[in-house]
Amino acid sequence: MLPVLIPIFLVVGLAVRITSRGPVLFLQKRMGRHGREFTILKFRTMIHSSERAHHPVTTSGNQQFTRVGPFLRRWKLDEVPQLFNVLAGHMSLVGPRPKLPAHAISNVPCRAGITGAATIAFAREETILDLVPKHHLEAFYHSVVLPAKHQLDEEYMASATFTSDLKLIIDSVLRRWDAAVIERLLKTWAYEQGDRRMLSNIAESEDTFAHPSLVPHMDRPAPSEEMRAY
Questions:
Q1: pLDDT tens-digit series, residues 135-147
Q2: Is 171 in contact with 94 (CB distance < 8 Å)?
Q3: 99-152 pLDDT, tens per residue?
Q4: What is the pTM of this model?
Q5: Which of 20, 24, 58 is CA-nearest to residue 43?
Q6: DSSP per residue over 121-146, as a string?
Q7: Phi, psi for residue 10 in degrees, rounded to 5
């Protein structure tokens, strides 16, 4: 795949270089198989001076992105350098996304992946998490989002096949995201917190929540079993 993607590497690398100061690549320690740390490679999408102190839970509104950063993140082009992590044996094409050490809630028995079941479900995570009040962000991410991601990945990897992996790769390339899981989690959590302001923000974000089938449930909190199912 790398020879075919060389033009993309060159174009994206040049765009990062000419639109902001700092290195082209962003290097960060992540947790891999059996808790082994490795350095993940990404195209840099944030202002270099702020990267050392960037917020561990990224939203679309709490970081200083470069001019091309949001575009690269929207199309997942910043993840392309991870093909070198795949070649090095740190990652696979499909698997659970590698977590920051502070976000690793379990010992993953398989290689981390560039894409996976939770990647598809939480691809619009940064936009949706921006609706969560800052003082609730860490609690929501650690108590709801991380366990949900773990469960999705664990269930998928337990029955993964070549065909299902290929479908995930194609869905990722074609940007066939499914935000229903994180939307439902956020609505349930907002009801449980009694946060009317957040519920109002969710209702007003029509571009983010475009699932008519979920609207009838807005007049009542979802049962706790429903949240655990995700």
A1: 889 999 999 999 9
A2: no
A3: 999 898 888 889 999 999 999 999 999 988 998 988 889 999 999 999 999 999
A4: 0.82
A5: 24
A6: HTTTHHHHHTTS-HHHHHHHIIIIIH
A7: -65, -45
